[in-house]
């Protein structure tokens, strides 16, 4: 008998022919999450089992597994050799914590000599012998003892099902780039897309000397904080100063934000191609600020030539976004007050509903290609 952690997966069940690909990717991601902890991970049919770790590491392993997308539930379990004797002996040692309980057997190994119903009754009786105050309640028990007889000759017994992160394993979709500011929203956007399997590279636009080094460090820190979920390991920092100065000098004030957004999208698309990414992700949220109206989004979408822009927060309330930011641990860092490039040269009355034709006219006053090339020449790559 040994203590193990049993992992069940979720949506991968739905995958037909390429289920193997998803299962192996999830195995890799589980190993990655606990790479620095001494433990073994094995895949058995439709489950994973973590074993051979030090008892004091168990909680840490569970905590890490909670960040792995694709996991449906996590249970601390005991692993027994599948035999009537072993299962019965173990059940004799069970001390219940609830007043009511039931036994729920799952017999994947159909060769086992008793069926699930028989085992539920028999084991329920054995447990009652040792817990004379307890009662069986098959409808709403306070405690359920799960007995999982697998095809690998092992039986797993456990009492808990901790809800996992859900979603799909990171790396199961095409890669993307995420426009990462220092705010609350974009780290949450990273989390959301990673949950659908997208591996992301971060892009940050800095405006030295108007924005400080601390502002950049804040973004690096945010990227690091999302890493357990996203696996992000690269942040590309581009200087946006020259672009902002050019817009400020040549274009009408109210077009500042609208034009900046278009440059950000163009540069992101170029960088995406260099890292093999096929989508751009932003933390925009409909109606949150002037630049996040349908008309503004139309203006920024129209410059993306070859890839979609995903805005996973588009229909979320700020409160819901903040809840996730708190859950993943980015909120406290996001609210630290440093200037973002968007606050530099901020117009008094930004355009709320830009007209695409007029935007293009205004933009034609600029050397678009030259400015983009220069910005990309300032690229700094930071390892996360
Ligand atoms: P956030 O909380 O993510 O900063 P926000 O509500 O402050 O978002 P904006 O500042 O208008 O909204 O930014 C909208 C989106 O544009 C951001 O979520 C981010 O994806 C992108 N963005 C804005 N500023 C930058 C920047 N300096 N570098 C990279 N991306 C940026
Ligand atoms: Mg912002």
Structural class: alpha/beta
Span between N and C termini? 40 Å
Provide the succession of SSEs: EHEEHEHEHEEEEEHEHEHHEHEHHHHE
Oligomer, anyone?
Answer: single chain
- C-alpha Rg, in Å? 27 Å
Strand content: 15-25%
What is the helix tally?
13
Estimate the mean pLDDT confidence. 94
The distinct ligands, each listed once, are: adenosine-5'-triphosphate, magnesium ion
Number of strands: 15
User: Looking at the structure, what is the overall shape?
Assistant: elongated
Low-confidence stretches: none
The biggest sheet amounts to:
9 strands, mixed
What percent of residues adopt helix (DSSP H or I)?
25-40%
Quick recap:
The protein is of the alpha/beta class. The protein has 13 helices and 15 strands.
Keyword list:
384 residues; 13 helices; 15 strands; elongated; binds magnesium ion
Care to describe what's here?
This protein is α/β, with parallel strands linked by helices. It has helices at residues 19-33, 58-65, 84-92, 116-130, 185-195, 213-230, 241-250, 256-274, 294-301, 318-328, 331-334, 356-363, 368-377; strands at residues 2-9, 40-44, 47-51, 71-81, 100-107, 135-136, 143-149, 154-158, 162-163, 176-179, 200-206, 234-239, 280-281, 309-310, 380-383. Strands 1, 2, 3, 4, 5, 6, 7, 8 and 9 form a nine-stranded mixed β-sheet that branches. Strands 14-13-10-11-12-15 form a six-stranded mixed β-sheet, with helices on both faces. The longest helix is centred in the C-terminal third of the chain and has 19 residues, at 256-274. It is elongated and about 85 Å long. Magnesium ion is lined by residues 181, 183, 340, 342.
